[in-house]
Write a structure and sequence with these properties.
Elements lengths: L2 H26 L4 H8 L2 H4 L8 H16 L5 H16 L11 H4 L8 H11 L16 H21 L2 H33 L4 H28 L4
Organism: Desulfitobacterium hafniense (Desulfitobacterium frappieri)
Keywords: Chaperone
InterPro entries: DMSO/NO3_reduct_chaperone (IPR020945), TorD-like_sf (IPR036411), TorD/DmsD_chaperones (IPR050289)
Length: 233
Amino acid sequence: MNNNNISQIEPLLETRAFIYDVLRRAFLQEPTLEFLTFLNDGSLFENFPFQEEQQDIREGVEQILALIHEKDLTKAEVFDSLHWDYTRMFIGPDRLPAPLWESAYLSKERLLFQEQTLKVRQAYLKYQFLPRNFMQEADDHLGLELDFMYQLTLKARQAMNEGNIEKLQQIFTDQKDFLENHLLQWVPELALKIRENAQSSFYPGIAKILKGFLTLDLEALEELMDSTQCCVK
């Protein structure tokens, strides 16, 4: 790949990795004090990528900023309320208003560890990606799916640095396939459920950013695939 193409692709890969990292950390587990301290600096959201290009991202960023300007996310009272919001919506023990598993939206039975889970696992295993708590947590948990996209973006950056264009294109193709056949098939419904059931504006804001970014990332991947096509011998 020539230097001009590298200079065009590298910033986009860095930005994609940053956003997937933030989003996976938001949904993998209950909010930690470390993560909320990281988010509490309003400059992260004030400068959040793509908010000018994508309405959902912009509206989600505005929700988060309004909350940060009103409250300190690291204060015990706020921390406890966000922790409870996550637990109540995503963990239980009562009926979950917004489950974080793909199978809960796409399987006929709406049960975990169904065909959807196995399809997600097949995508993971192609890259030897084994989620934490493998066989204990269903593979199609949102946090794990976002972590997979994050890890693939890191692999794409490595392939770019090595000049391995065929591998780079394969990663982009597989990421596009994963977005189309998995994340974008159920995240919009999840985002709606979060908006309807959250007790604070934090998770609705994050979910809106997620929904908007996944839509935008599909377009970005198509552009990345086109930009590397000319470099294939």
